[in-house]
Every structure is written in C-alpha cells, then in structure tokens.
Amino acid sequence: MICPACDRSLEKVKIGGIVVDVCKNGCGGIWFDKNELEKVDEQHEAAGEKLLDFLCDENIKVDFSKKRKCPVCNGIIMVKHFESIKHEIEIDECYKCGGIWLDAGELRSIRKQFLTDEARRKAFDDYVGKVISPELNRMREESEIKVQQARNFAKAFRFICPSNYIPGKQEWAAF
Description:
The structure is a single chain. The chain is an alpha+beta fold. It folds into two domains: 103 residues, no CATH class; 60 residues. Helices cover 32% and strands 14% of the residues. The chain has a six-stranded antiparallel beta sheet with strand order 1-2-3-6-5-4, with no helix packed on it. A hairpin with a 7-residue loop joins strand 2 and strand 3. The protein starts with 10 loop residues before the first strand and ends in a 15-residue tail after the last helix. The model has no long low-confidence stretch (mean pLDDT 82).
C-alpha cells in the first residue's frame, strides 16, 4: 500500500488485535481500516499508546492542503472532515471503504481531546446547546404559531357551519 501523504510504502503493524498500516520512517501517518480507529482513540486503550511514537523523516514535507487518494480504493479521493465536535482535528476518510488516514501526531491529539466519556458527553451536550437548540426553539415557535392559526380557523369555521351539519351525511352537503 502507498502512503497517501508522501507516496512511500506503508508497513503493516499488528497492535492489540488490529493491523494498521504505518508510514514508518516516512511522514509518520497511520491508515486505519473501517472501525479500527475506535479501538485505539481513547487514552485508556493501551493498544493506542504503542501507535504514538513512530519515527518520521524530518526531511519529508507533507502538503496538508493536497487532496489524498485512498490507499485501498483505486482512484477514490478521501473526504476531509473534523474528527469530533471540538473541530480541532481534521482527518481524511474514504467514503467507499470507511478507512481513515491520520497524519503524524493526529492520533495523539485525538486521544488527548477527552479524558473521560463524561467529558465527551458534556462536550456533545454543550455543542447541541449552542448549535441545535436555537434551531429547535425557532421551529417550536413556528409550530405554536401554526397551531394557534389552525385553532382560530376552526373557531371561525364553527360559526359558518350549522350545528346540525355532519360532513358527508346530508344529501345537500357540499362536501
């Protein structure tokens, strides 16, 4: 497999029951197949600790703005997106195979983001409060206005129709 960042060969490394591909003595990036990152992305996961210190060649300059090709899927350009709600770490992910490319140092940053699951949940709740709650409140207000309009229309309609009118039951009915 070829490194998507520096075009060197990736080496397979088995750690904690998973096999990842590492750009040893190159740019220091790591390729994770689908669902492998989840097994090493938190501080309490010992296997992830062993992936933090691969040697990099200081002479290799990586162009982080360059679009990267998936090392598994032929010709597929990976999508850049933020790894978490903190929007601090941008990763490359293949939309076809679900693999993830991390540049040197990104795994360390990911592991440091949240010390506990509680901190992760709190960050999510804070994010929801800032981003989603205002939109939900706006939608709730619009719904309440529409409900009130419907009630007002129903009240007005009550005076138009005779009290003995039952829709569909009278021969003379228009409905």
